[in-house]
Amino acid sequence: KMDTGPETSGSAFVLQCEQLLEETRVDKEKRKRVIGLANQIVEALNAAKPKGHKGNYKKRVWLKKLGISFPLLLSDEQIEKQLTTVEDYSWIKPEKIEIMDDSTIRVEDVNEVFVRLIVTMDKKLLDTRDFLNGIYHTKRALVLCSAAAIIKGEVKSVDLSFVCERGDSLLPILRVRNGDLSVDISITSGPGWIKPVRFTPAIGNVRPSWAHGEKAQSKDCSPSPHLNQSLAFSIHESSLLLSIQSRLIHKPKLQDAITLLQKWARTRRLRGLTPLFIRGWMIHLLNEGKVNEKKDMMTSVVSCLQSLANLVCGTVVCVDGEKEGLTASTISPISLWDESGSVNMGGDITQRELLRIHVESTRTLSSLGDLSAASSLFLDELPFVGIFDHYMQLTLTPTVLSNIDLVTDTVSERDKLNLFIRHLSSQIETGMGERVEYWDVAVVDDFQKNLLESSHDEWNVSSDRPKEKKEYRIILGFNPSQQWNSPLTMGPMANSPDVAAFSSFWKGQAHVRKFADSRICMTMAWGETPSEAVPLKIIGFILSEYWSMDPSSLSWRTSIDSELRGKRSNQERTAKAFSKLSEMLRGVKGLPLSVTNVHAVSPYLRGTEPDDCVFAETRGGALKGSSLIPIDNRLPVYKPSVYVQIKLEHSGKWGEEDGAMEALTTAFYLKLAEGLKQLSVMAVATKRDCRVNIDEVVFRVEVMNGKEHAMLRKRVETLKNAGASRGNIQPAQHILEMFETKFVREQQLSSSLGGLATPYPAYADCVLMMKRWIGTNHLSPFINDYTIELLVASQFTEKTKKSIPKSGWNAFTRVLTLITTHNWALKPLIVDFMSEWNDEKRARMESSFLSLRPVLPPMVIVCNEDEKGCVWTRENPDPVILRRLISLASLTLSLLVENVHCEKPIDVTRVLSRESWQAYDVVLDLVAPLVSRLCESRGRSWKGSMAVIDWDPVEAFLHELNAHFGHLAYFFFNRYRPVSIGVKFKPHEDGLAVSLTRCGGHKRDANGRLVVNRNEVMEGIKIMAGPLLAKIYIPGLKEKNEKMEN
């Protein structure tokens, strides 16, 4: 964590941030060229005495002669209704033109330098009441058109376009481009001609009947707070930006802190933290003495983030500090007034975004100082689909936007959309406040353009302005609380004065309910049990009751079908059976050694294994002794066991020989089975484990023998001390590593993973989805289950530094993003379950990784149980499979993102479950009745008999294929639906030089080189498969190359 004092200026993190600033700093030479272009424009405008720039401002015939289009979407009827005593327009030399640094308004990019010219129009063009009904905006637009015509004629090689910033349709600017240089021109009037009272939120400067016709006349007395603030900024723009520049111009450390904060707000998509607000807030902190130029850059950043983390709704401050007469804004929870007290620089912050500002500021404070976090905090932009756990899409038709409640404080359709979002936000916060931690709204058009502001429209000055859309789609993103799925919306106590408001909001459908603790409260019921559909029902209710919208206009875009996640009830049943087993194992009498620990190693016990026939059901058969003999020609259903490890009390009587230990362990299993049978539990002892059937869940219990572990380590140490050769040491070392992987690392890792599965249900959901997805793409043989869980676990660790996914969908998309974006060749993936590795430790790990890179596997995942990072990835995936995995993850991720913002929802479950065999050279279709995972459960459970467990003929066949032909081909299949096996011959096995060691499976081609003998390989496969193989075919061919009937 970062300290907040000046001593942090020398830290590696600060140096990294300074380097980041330097790399993204705007080119000084380019800025000089932009300033040169700006000076040319200033000279042209000051010296201009154009002809033809005059006429009645309502007619605008002279504009067409100049080849300039009028940039406002106001109808002739609206302009005709504007009443002013100054109807004649002519170009008058501006009162002044100021060159401003545009980074005050927008975040500059390293490749793009913007400078803003603020042109103060002559006040002779204005009447004292031109603030009404857009008259000022119309005349301002005419001055902008004249400026465009002058620049077009006087400045060579420039392209001119109008731009609407921040979705403001009434206040466009002019953008002048010359190659890679760009200058923005804004027109202002200065504040002298209008009284400040006209900017107050309670005043209405735009009558709805003027903007929307006679139907809105009843709303003419309504205030227009948003349009007032827009007008105030336009009029005070020059003085406001000059004041900010003068206060920061000689404070380079504060400027760097501001730039860093701007980049942070941009990467976090905090649209309310505009460059203008960040500068104003820093000046406010400067006046308060919380930051100063003498402190280093990072100290100022920390102070600002701390103040933002503690920002409360209703804050009213001025950049100058204390000032009398300031009032809270009615349209924003934060009021940061400029010197004039007219412009609220915090006006873009909404109530919903204030919650995100708190969360992101707090999270960032905990990450400062972490070298691995600098890039993600200040450089890598976080996409909107990646911030939240749940997304819904809402379609707004023209009928909705024509609602009478949307005519006040609006002129354009986009204004109506923004007002609808404000109304809907208030209603959602009232109806779902207890269900969400934070949430936000994005317009699909902006989302597709990846815009941070509400909208940027740009068009050529000679072209008509694009018509406004009549239909919009918006995305609602939610980060849920624990009450997200609750079937009840809790209201006030029955005797509270808030009952009337609660009942009114829910349109009289709320009712009184008495709870077990004797509370009597108002509630709104949405069902009997928790359900993911509840939030959808609540928003649907709001849309129907308040906006008369059809429920079909709302769709949930991140709902994943239970087919991809498994059944929770079955997982609970397994957990209860394990609890019984643990109690029984500790209570069995007559054992030579008592059981001290029971470790849940199986993924079934943490809910991370797809639920395919977990329970010991059978198809029927003949009982012979304690064994069940299946009916002829009918294979048993695949029934996996739940693997459990136990530890015994210490004993010195195990002996020192492998055979003696093995015999004693088997004898213990026999005693354990006898003891469990006395407890009326079905148990069968084998040479290597004891199998126990509890509530039709079969557990495979294995002893972790500490004595055996010590003996294996001693054997390796003895060989090393005796100076044995590497060839003699390696077999003993290999046996030790296998033992430690199975009984130490896997047991410890299972414990760590179980620690994530318990508090984070999304963890198990995501692992299930990943396993299904990997299976559907036929990568099951190449990606170890622990590798999958470690990839998912990386998104649930270090929770103080990043948000923890609360839905399986969000976690799934993050894991796919990790697979596609992580640089596997140059960096290990570090998963720190204990949050105990500091930057120094991580740096040593990465340095060790780079030094050993040539001998490490393609995918390295470092965790607390495996600091080398290759225990579970040593054999797979290889480079080819890793590239395949990355490609598939990229395709799937694009599909999931597309589903959020596309017009019609995609059946994600169907798409993710669809298998394709076109990529393979040969496909082996299997006989379905012989595939145990495809067999259906029939008959009844057999009491007193042990079912056949872990019997999977396809897995056994695949093991044989890899053993005999794995050096020649890849074998792909879906473990959870193994209907076929895809064969892809390895291309690097063709064209080899003749060698005795490579003759197997090869033949010589016409050039005398070795190529894979595919006929020989396929003949061997047919012999090995026997009755399991149904047919062989080459994908893409209409006719099958070969067909074998069972």
Automatic annotation (TrEMBL):
In the UniProt record, which is one GO cellular component term? Answer: CURI complex
| Superkingdom of the source species | Eukaryota
GO BP annotations listed: rRNA processing; tRNA export from nucleus
Q: Name one GO molecular function term.
A: RNA binding
Nrap protein domain location: 115-237, 388-545, 567-757, 760-910, 918-1032
* Location(s) in or outside the cell: Chromosome; Nucleus, Nucleolus
What keywords were assigned to this record?
Chromosome, Nucleus, RNA-binding
Quaternary form?
Part of the small subunit (SSU) processome, composed of more than 70 proteins and the RNA chaperone small nucleolar RNA (snoRNA) U3.
**Would you identify the family this protein belongs to, as annotated?**
Belongs to the NRAP family.
User: What is the protein's known function?
Assistant: Part of the small subunit (SSU) processome, first precursor of the small eukaryotic ribosomal subunit. During the assembly of the SSU processome in the nucleolus, many ribosome biogenesis factors, an RNA chaperone and ribosomal proteins associate with the nascent pre-rRNA and work in concert to generate RNA folding, modifications, rearrangements and cleavage as well as targeted degradation of pre-ribosomal RNA by the RNA exosome.
Name of the protein this chain belongs to: Nucleolar protein 6
Taxonomic source organism: Pristionchus entomophagus
